[in-house]
Specification:
The complex is a heterotrimer of chains A (about 475), B (about 100) and C (about 475). Helices cover about 40% and strands about 20% of the residues of chain A. Chain A has about 475 residues and is α+β, with helices and mostly antiparallel strands. In chain A, strand 6 and strand 7 form a beta hairpin. Chain C contains 16 helices and 11 strands. An 8-stranded mixed sheet of chain C has the order 4-6-5-10-11-9-7-8, with helices on both faces. In chain C, helix 4 links the parallel strand 2 and strand 3. Classes of the chains: A alpha+beta (about 475), B alpha+beta (about 100), C alpha/beta (about 475). Chains in contact: A-B, A-C, B-C. At the A-C interface, loops of A face helix 10 and helix 11 of C. Chain B: It catalyses: L-aspartyl-tRNA(Asn) + L-glutamine + ATP + H2O = L-asparaginyl-tRNA(Asn) + L-glutamate + ADP + phosphate + 2 H(+); L-glutamyl-tRNA(Gln) + L-glutamine + ATP + H2O = L-glutaminyl-tRNA(Gln) + L-glutamate + ADP + phosphate + H(+). Chain B: Keywords: ATP-binding, Ligase, Nucleotide-binding, Protein biosynthesis.
Amino acid sequence: MSHSGNWEVVIGLEVHVQLATESKIFSGTSTRTGDEPNRHASLIDLGLPGTLPVVNKEAIRNAIRFGLAVNADIARRSVFERKNYFYPDLPKGYQTTQLAEPIVGAGEVVVRLEDGTEKTVRIHHAHLEEDAGKSLHEAFSDYMGHGQTGIDLNRAGTPLIEIVSEPDMSGAEDAVAFARKLHSIVTSLGICDGDMSQGNMRFDVNISVRRPGEPLGTRTETKNLNSFRFMEKAIALEVARQIDVLEDGGEIVQETRLYNGETNTARSMRTKEDANDYRYFPCPDLLPVMVSEAEIQALRDELPELPDARKARYMERYQLSDYDADLLSGSIATARYFEAAAEHGGDAKLAANWVMGELAAKLNSEDKDIADSPVSAEQLGQLILRLKDGTISSKIAKQVFEACWNGEGDPDAIIEAKGLKQMSDSGELEKIVDQVIADSPAQVEDYRNADDAKRKKKIGFFVGQVMKATQGKANPQQVNQLLQEKL
Amino acid sequence: MAIDSKVVARAAHLARLRVDDSETAELSARLNDILGMVDQLQQADVDQVEPLAHPLEVSQPLRDDRVTEPDVRDKVLPLAPASEDGCFLVPRVIE
Amino acid sequence: MHEKTLTELKAGLQARDFSSRELTEHFLDRIKRRDGELNSFITVTEEQALRQADAADQAIAAGDHRLLTGLPIAHKDIFCTEDVRTSCGSRMLDNFIAPYTATAVEKMAHEGAVMLGKTNMDEFAMGSSNETSFYGPVKNPWDTERVPGGSSGGAAASLAARLAPGATGTDTGGSIRQPAALNGVTGLKPTYGRVSRWGMIAFASSLDQAGPLGLSAADCALMLQAMAGHDDKDSTCLNEPVDDYLGALDQSVDGLKIGVPEEFFPENLDGAIADNAREAMRELEKQGAKLVKLSLPSIKLSVPAYYVIAPAEASSNLSRFDGVRFGYRCENPTDLEDLYKRSRSEGFGAEVKRRILVGTYALSAGYYDAYYKRAQKVRRLIRDDFSRAFKDVDVIMGPTSPETAFKLGAKADDPVNMYMADVFTIAVNLAGLPALSMPSGFVNGLPAGTQVIGNYFQEGRILNVAHRYQMATDWHQQAPGGFA
């Protein structure tokens, strides 16, 4: 649908990051996932009467690490508050979170856009809070004619950092770039596993539109997006919807919406009532968390390499372009893979090309993460070695890669098994070249009659024939050379 | 600070308490009495004073990140009014 | 045996004058025969008590004498006790068998205590008369038409009636001290953070403290010695070393400076109550203490501040009672809202609902600053008043309660009047100070108590003052005629 005139889009993100601590934020219960319901829900997590919270040191440290990574102010004193509301997956009837005094203050993140420009997205603050449990809606018996929902509190109490951005983004590209950057930061820090399909990171997108120069429009919130692709689509959908409504003379209702990635549709969440009054107040079972300068400095000193630093290192050490370095340093999984492959293969440029090219294409087509790549970094490295030492040509390399992907073994084994070694024996090759020339008199004539410019193209026919006759194993440069001599 | 039935109804809803019409009047009166007493607070000169949340001004002790709590499902699930397949049951919730 | 104090019984057990089994059976029997008149127990744990008594006897035989070995104690039904019903005086938890035990109770059990049962209390500790319990009101053994005070009414009444020689209670606004005063027994609220709140069902988290009730200060010292101490399961429980309370009992009070706030003797205070407290202080003067007049001006706002802070915290603490994971659930809920609203409305009594509503209101948007935040500021003023006073005095004293036990039902329709029963005790909770009530005689035939307030972690000092007083008087040895 086309829209008339200029519309400005204003986007802010709220990102929930599940911290990869051993135990929960307010109890010593395991944060492990995948087990039967309520096997990791202690007396405290269940909100049994008389139970009390105790704060996980590592959650605090992880929050500080994040703050340092985004150049934010770290609060020397922060306070946990209670956000009161009723929902079955919230056992205490309140969520312990932070409001007035969060542990991380204002910070910023720089993202690189498609066109190579950089944009700064400001972070308003980041705070610690506990996750709720899960509601399971299927397969429970009916009761008195009503369906039932099952509550699993394994997740209740898992530590979260909620990162709230300023509304600095102006479209899906900005938003996704920012989201990816945050993902890269938290995984590089090691504070989050970053497995989006497991809900390790969840994004809420606040979107509003306005005509340029006008005040901010009413915004809507689309909750719980857990993939970058969905985020992009959900934003596009909502922006279009809002513009449609406004251009039709309607008004945007402030609401929360749920996006369905499978159908690419979104709907308003059934609101239980009008705006909830959460009655925040400092949790009286907890005391203010005090952090010292020394503790902050110690954490700063031991920060691992962050994405920006890694990118700079790639550009310097491996001579990669801004674009390439940005792409490869973007996710810690990709970075690790790339560096291992570059190490093994002894050629960073080749490793970069393969990771961003063939590997990325294959991963995308099968919807896999690099962590699940059937071709390991070591294997790719081996492939690169064979390319470099001339054992195989780049065309054959693609074949080998495919075979390796399909589980046929290491590149060396595949090359051996399939006899894919590049033919560089000149004698053998010369014979084939002669044969090809002898078999195609018409094309030879055509070639000899053509001028230099056309020859460049026409020689391709012969190269092709030779490659066919050698099953691609001939060294293309050699073939070219020989043909030029003989034709 | 007058409490009328609307205010009572709103507070009751936030607290998930059911207040019948018959109770509202009496409840409003009682609450008004209590708040009337509480309104004495407005006399206090507290402009320059910080709130005191805990009598002893100490900081939060922090615990090591270790798993110390065992699986207690077999002990606590039997306490539930309704449960099935290891989950607590509530009437179907539609989001 | 029931005429003896806990301290005397301990000596008796050690001297093998009787066994723990005999002792426990004696009290269990008394409870069976007499508690029907008082309703001070919600659950009697006969089997468990006898098992614990037998175990204690074995320990004693083996020479293992701990602080409370073999001594029967009654625990307020606000403490979670594993595998035993823990009702908090409410229909909401009538069917709740706790899956764990509160630290305070655990520590006493570790010191060899025998649990007689769980005592009756105002529902969720909200009350000053023990009339709001789902299990019916508790009667004052001195006059069974009168209230025992609350919320630890069952604990105080059972002690006074000699149905238990020692008891635990909790105090949020006076709930140990006021019933102690109305029953002629001794009750102590420790410094906030002295005793762990783990397993103690929360009413107002920043005010609640567990403490002992006994027939004497020495008994309270014995019990406190067992209850006190750091617990890393409670973030608000301080890591302060536990003093030797028993060792401090006999200190001389010569030179002790007793602060007497004018606010504890207001114009409208019953003359007989005022005289009773003054008499108690005169007794200490005889022993060399000096009275110092002082003023705690912010104290007059303590009741309003409390009645914002406590209900606000309670309204949040009680949200977990929703009929989902434990406790009362209504019949045939039609949907989630119905489940919540009916379970909570049917599970909670009127006073609890009232306070939840006040608390919800005080925290709600637009009112937070005017009520909750303002009350916390007033709290600081009160705390500062005490801090200033303690620069000049060692303890502060006055009457515990403005009145003696009132008739059952007398204040049923007047919550604000009921709240005024705590006027002398509440400020102590807001400031987090330790305080006790000791029996100081009778007014119109009913027990009256005098309060002794100490500075932070001065439990030893205030127990010492009460003990010295009790060495020179015998009010604490009086028992109600019908139960002597």
